[in-house]
Write a structure and sequence with these properties.
The chain is an alpha/beta fold and 245 residues long. Helix content is 42%, strand content 20%.
Length: 245
């Protein structure tokens, strides 16, 4: 059962999408593992330019941002993020001078962690920043996602579909649950395969056609219940939950 895959948690960080902007793969992998264990999702940007691109396309709930990165450094990335959004940002850097901390905070960072760090501390700080940045009303709304006939409880990790007077609990894999959740957040928006891959699939899955396989299995389970044609495939682009017609 899905409930056994992720421990129930009342923390608003559950299922939050964290963008890890870090050029050292080992550090990124460790942070991703700790975030996953805490019930969060993650995407990885290996350089500053990619971090800007993924921030624009994925709209993460928080960014863990390294300062010293190739192509575009963390200060410039933070400036770009602040020009377009108020996404919480925690800086990760080996620079421990007070002037560097002040610079990050003045540009708009929400917190600052100096390397080497304890990954568990980074997770705790991430959860704390998310709690501070999310208004109470939004926290409550984040628990349950609804778009008829679907309802997803992010705390109990349960997905249901209401057909007439009968409510069915969907027996989904963790990846299928994540995909349905992502699509349900914006039912008419088309999500590219790359977006779904980064937001919903394990770090080891790197082929976009893997998304097609999981979507196909999700669609088959819905069809078995009588919910036909969902999710909708958009040729050459990706998927959305249902048609705009």
């Amino acid at each position: 059962m899905l409930n056994s895959m992720l421990q129930a948690n009342s923390d608003p960080a559950v299922q939050a999408l964290i963008l890890i902007a870090e050029d050292e793969p080992e550090i990124a992998d460790i942070l991703s593992a700790y975030l996953t264990h805490a019930g969060m999702r993650s995407a990885h940007a290996p350089d500053g330019q990619r971090a800007i691109e993924l921030h624009q396309s994925l709209r993460p709930d928080l960014v863990l941002l390294d300062v010293q990165m190739p192509r575009v450094d963390g200060w410039k990335v933070l400036t770009e993020i602040r020009h377009s959004s108020d996404t919480p940002v925690i800086m990760l850097t080996a620079m421990d001078q007070d002037i560097d901390k002040l610079m990050g905070l003045r540009i708009g960072a929400d917190d600052y962690v100096v390397k080497p760090f304890n990954p568990a501390e980074v997770v705790a700080r991430t959860q704390a920043v998310l709690r501070r940045s999310m208004p109470r009303g939004d926290r409550e709304n984040q628990r349950v996602l609804r778009a008829a006939p679907f309802e997803i409880d992010l705390i109990t990790h349960e997905a249901t579909v209401q057909l007439g007077k009968q409510r069915h609990v969907l027996a989904l894999t963790l990846t299928e649950f994540k995909l349905l959740t992502q699509l349900l957040r914006a039912p008419r928006r088309v999500f590219s395969r790359a977006e779904l891959l980064a937001a919903c699939l394990p770090e080891g899955d790197t082929l976009e056609r893997t998304v097609d396989s999981h979507i196909s299995k999700l669609r088959k389970k819905l069809e078995d219940l009588g919910v036909m044609g969902i999710p909708v495939g958009i040729r050459g682009v990706g998927y959305r939950l249902w048609s705009v017609e």
